[in-house]
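Illustration: ATPase AAA-type core domain-containing protein.
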Amino acid sequence: MIKSLRLSNFYSFAEDTQVDFSLGRKPTPSGFDIELADCRLNKVIAVVGANGSGKTQLIKPLAFLSWFVCDSFLQADPDRSIPYKPHLLHLEEDTRLELDFFLLGVEHRYQLVLNGGEVVSEALFARTSTQFSYLFRRERSGDGFSFKQKGFPFPKAQAQGLRANTSLLAAAHSYDIKEARPFIEYFHSISSNVKHDGRRHFQHDALFSSAESYEQCPQIKARMIELMRELDLGLADISIRQVKVATVDGEQSTAHLPFGLHRSGDSREFELSFFEESSGTQSAFVLLGWVLSALEHGGVAVIDEIDNDLHPHLMPRVLDLFRFEHSNPHQAQLIFTCHTPELLNLLQKHQVYLCEKQDQCSAAWRLDEVVGLRADDNLYAKYMAGALGGVPEL
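Result:
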């Protein structure tokens, strides 16, 4: 579970910015709360703002950290820079990312500092009392790195010579160091339509990849079919079959393709491939893959433009998947951006961030930071009236 994310000099966010999932004891329970021994966490956070305000950039660090921690050692080109961008007005300054999260009942902190497309420092901590103690620290020193560890047995010589475009956690996992495995599994449980280097804009190829993922996890596939029936999309059932497709070089390959079964009131039936279904049906099929994966594993779903191609009446049903224990037994979390301000009627002020760009720099704030905003205020009405910020100035 995520407690908080801090970032600075990352894409359009130049200044220190925090996305905080924690809340005090004061807010009235909403059903979207995780109760821990000494704190409460949000299950759901919405990010709202004008086009170009930085909404995607605010949630992108989670997708970036998932890729960097899990895959940068094996997937990254050894000679390429880390794929991220500092703010274009602060190219020479450090980029800082910090994530506080709970794993196996212990609060941890992961810190990463980047500059020039390379690692400046990387560290992992565990809370031992009121303070954090490091499990490892890796800091740039000359042509290599200095390295210290307590209970994280990565060989010092390898850590000092590790290349500057990869995570030590990713390397440790590749070397089969068992202490790295829980952290790899945690960061791998971040499920997102945002890539580490940008958003995954919907393309028809997503139908193939989503269908293949469903086939690999029958319990998620069964839940997806159940939900697709419930969403009033005209579907009686969904099947996934392997088909022959042409590759870009003209060769033949196999791929998984979903087909929707439609049934009339007199029990007559017909079938359509999902390429013939509506864009909303296609989007729901792909979206549920990310959402249900997080719910199945107790992870975090990071969804950009969650309302894309979906009717507003469908969104409460998606949020309710995270609200109730029977559909979210592992306390999965969801953070999403959207352009449907009516969703503000479903959430409380501590569950909503607004984004705004001022003087070419993005800023974000949680609505419970707004002075004078009451818990029983109509958030939708105030937002639409421009009283909270985060709206286009036309």
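Reading the tokens back as a structure: The first helix runs from residue 55 to 75.
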